[in-house]
Design goal:
The protein is α+β, with helices and mostly antiparallel strands and 362 residues long. The chain has helices spanning 25-29, 38-56, 59-78, 122-143, 152-165, 232-250, 259-271, and strands at residues 3-4, 169-170, 183-186, 189-191, 205-214, 217-226, 275-276, 280-284, 291-295, 311-314, 317-319, 325-327, 334-336, 342-344, 347-351, 356-358. The strands form five sheets. Strands 2, 3, 5 and 6 form a four-stranded antiparallel β-sheet that branches. A three-stranded antiparallel β-sheet has the order 1-8-9. Residues 77-89 have a biased composition (Basic residues). GO terms for molecular function: initiator methionyl aminopeptidase activity; metal ion binding; metalloaminopeptidase activity. Its EC number is 3.4.11.18.
Length: 362
């Protein structure tokens, strides 16, 4: 379950800015009168043309023009699908009294992000593995439920039951007031979708984000699933998003810089013309649900290096169109601003001396 960067302690993600130079009025109007001979007019027109051509090939302007065209084309292509609408949200499900609960329950306020990196001893690693393996099994089984006509509320019920049957607690339930046991984000929903009565439609894509709290440790993972007959364009988006996660994990090891993750993910996404969402980030996870380090998936200059024994999530969100977002009045459900599709994948990893171990695997 990702955390919004705008609600965290680090500086806002880097934004590309530009400034354009302009002629001053004094420079334009302080010249002496001149006579306009044919050759003078011709030379002036040539210079004007050269200025216009030079402006057209400005690298920044060209990049922005291409991006705008891509977003407009993709948005038009995918807006044939009805926009996502809120269904009926049923009451939260009960959890047996004997199941240990995380400390943030009882408050609708989002807990502060812990400033401490979660680095585990051998006992802690064993418990992290158990929590993450459970989360992975639950996610795998939840994915088997994805088909047309199934509601996200049904998925929530199944996930809830699987988690409590294992003696664990569904971490999202009650976190900052979140009313359900899993996040289900469909089509243009970037993340944090609340399960409701909406039925899945043929051709949908849906991210299911599972986090469990077992023996005092959180395991966090998500995956985007295909529902029925999905278009090739959406299949490619989902495939590339998973590849971005894999490439980000591949460079992790003791001593590696966190900023390399965002660079590697951005490079791969850009090959296919996809945008990388900056607002939502990965995070440290363990006995605390969300902690430092915050993992930016876009290019950044955030300092810090990975440490052996540390656990955190990587969870990139890619979009076909705009990476800007809007959040519904429920303060959770976040959609792409232009209605274009988005996909996300997430793993919890453990940093080792020579690489990274993916903990959220069955």
């Amino acid at each position: 379950m990702g955390f919004p960067a705008s609600m965290s302690s680090p500086p806002s993600p880097l934004q590309l800015s530009s400034s354009s130079s302009s002629w001053s009025k004094s420079a334009l109007f302080s010249v002496a009168p001149i006579s306009f001979s044919p050759s003078t007019v011709k030379n002036a027109l040539c210079r004007k043309r050269l200025v216009i051509l030079s402006k057209r090939i400005s690298p920044l302007e060209e990049a922005m023009r291409i991006r705008r065209e891509r977003e407009l084309q993709n948005t038009a292509k995918f807006r044939k699908r009805p926009p996502l609408r809120r269904g009926r949200v049923s009451p939260r499900l009960p959890v047996p009294d004997d199941i240990p609960k995380p400390p943030y329950l009882g408050s609708n306020e989002l807990p502060d992000i812990s400033s401490e990196h979660q680095i585990h001893d051998s006992e802690g690693i064993v418990k992290m593995r158990a929590a993450c393996e459970l989360a992975a099994r639950v996610l795998e089984n939840a994915g088997k439920l994805v088909r047309p006509s199934v509601t996200t509320n049904e998925i929530d019920k199944a996930v809830h039951q699987m988690i409590i049957d294992a003696g664990a607690y569904p971490s999202p339930l009650g976190y900052g007031g979140f009313p359900k046991s899993v996040c289900t984000s469909i089509n243009e929903c970037m993340c944090h979708g609340i399960p409701d009565s909406r039925q899945l439609q043929d051709g949908d894509i849906i991210n299911i984000d599972v986090t469990v709290y077992l023996n005092g440790y959180h395991g966090d993972t998500s995956k985007t699933f295909l529902c029925g007959n999905v278009s090739d364009a959406l299949k490619r988006l989902v495939k590339v998003t998973e590849e971005c996660l894999e490439r980000g994990i591949a460079l992790c090891k003791d001593g590696a810089s966190f900023k390399k993750i965002g660079k590697r993910i951005s490079e791969h996404a850009e090959k296919y013309g996809y945008g990388v969402v900056e607002r939502f980030v990965g995070h440290g996870v363990g006995t605390v649900f969300h902690s430092e380090p915050l993992i930016l998936h876009n290019r950044n200059d955030r300092p810090g290096v990975m440490v052996e024994g540390e656990t955190f999530t990587i969870e990139p969100i890619l979009t076909i169109g705009s990476t800007e977002c809007i959040t519904w009045p429920d303060n959770w459900t976040t959609l792409t601003a232009d209605g274009s599709p988005a996909a996300q994948f997430e793993h919890t990893i453990l940093i080792t001396r020579t690489g990274a171990e993916i903990l959220t695997k069955c």
